RNA sequence: UCCUCAGUAGCUCAAUGGUAGAGCAUCCGGCUGUUAACCGGAGGGUUCCUGGUUCGAGUCCAGGCUGAGGAGCCA
């Protein structure tokens, strides 16, 4: 008869804390990740959400009954394991558990994600199970760290989190890029594609603010850099200039990357990330103008005409010139949004900035100074054929004590994707929403 | 929306126009240091769909469906 955990005074432990329990007898509660056997000895890899550990069960130590219970147990069966923690140089985590008791909570059968390879489509259809895999867990932990670092960065600098709405009343920049939602009997509402306009109002109230939430884009983008639903953090600062915005973006990116390097080294190792590339992410970031970026693109032989926006290959060409993120500022005003402030010294360019990540990961941040002059903003709204009535509240910000101000948006999944070295954005969020994918 | 590529066992893939195959998973057996464990055996097929060419189609042709990568747009 095997010795069941409940017959002992239990010491519940998590695998991430296992080093503190060396020599002790503990109880782990989790799932069977993999099993190997040599007839009279089972090697059970158990995961509990906090980590993975190999549990060694010998027939002699565990007893026939307990041993038999583990004989045919399938991958992802939930289990409670009782055993003694032992340091072992052969173990990837440095420790193993010598099993003395073992209970099956609920057996699994035919778990679809086997230790062998699977295709992306197959795994995405089973995303709810795929996230149990070590690599996916590492990515999601790094995502958590990125988000935590972002919040800490702003919270420690006097910023106030002020949430902006998900439902917005009218199309700011054309309805083709927005998801319509029927809002009771009144009108069509749209899912937000940016909290920025509300952020500006919040900044006029609270000075330094940020919002952080999901954002929706109905563009039929079908690339490794796009999701239809993604998370964006957007700071906005009253009295900020373009230089202030760039300094803030630089500080945020450095802070986030350093935080992940400090606290998530184990996860980066699981992902086999070349961390030397991340260690180089230090201030100051190079700041180059659109004109200088265009010159780099032309020098590299890519076709490019002044006045156009950069495509993905153009961004890669520019970012390849630098070993850290690069700020590209003063884009042609014509290709930027109606609220972008023109450079007073050169009105054909806007006081906007994009931050391009290294290694071909493209734009992770976009922002700049906003139009603060009432007459200019009204003219821009008319030029873009936007419904003035819907923007009266936004114009109010220029009627009642307008000040220079600016901010930016940073796409969380793009940052996570870059830090993790992923080849596709879809792994950077638990349940990606893309063109042609809304399951599970 | 456009361009390119792919679809064969539960999964990952192979098969010169000529008998439908392997590894993994599953089931049975063996093994006290495995770690994508290994060794032996067994079961497992609407070759995405529709039509066409051919003595004969997984393979060639046409149309469709589904997915992937890229472009545009953006974070």
Give a structural overview:
It is a single chain. The protein has 440 residues and is α+β, with helices and mostly antiparallel strands. The chain is built from 14 helices and 18 strands. The strands form 4 sheets. An 8-stranded mixed sheet has the order 6-10-11-18-17-16-13-12. A 5-stranded mixed β-barrel has the order 1-2-3-5-4. A 3-stranded antiparallel sheet has the order 7-9-8, with no helix packed on it. It is elongated, with a radius of gyration of 27 Å. The protein starts with 24 loop residues before the first strand and ends in a 20-residue tail after the last helix. The protein binds one RNA strand of 75 nucleotides through strand 1, strand 2, strand 3, helix 3 and strand 11.
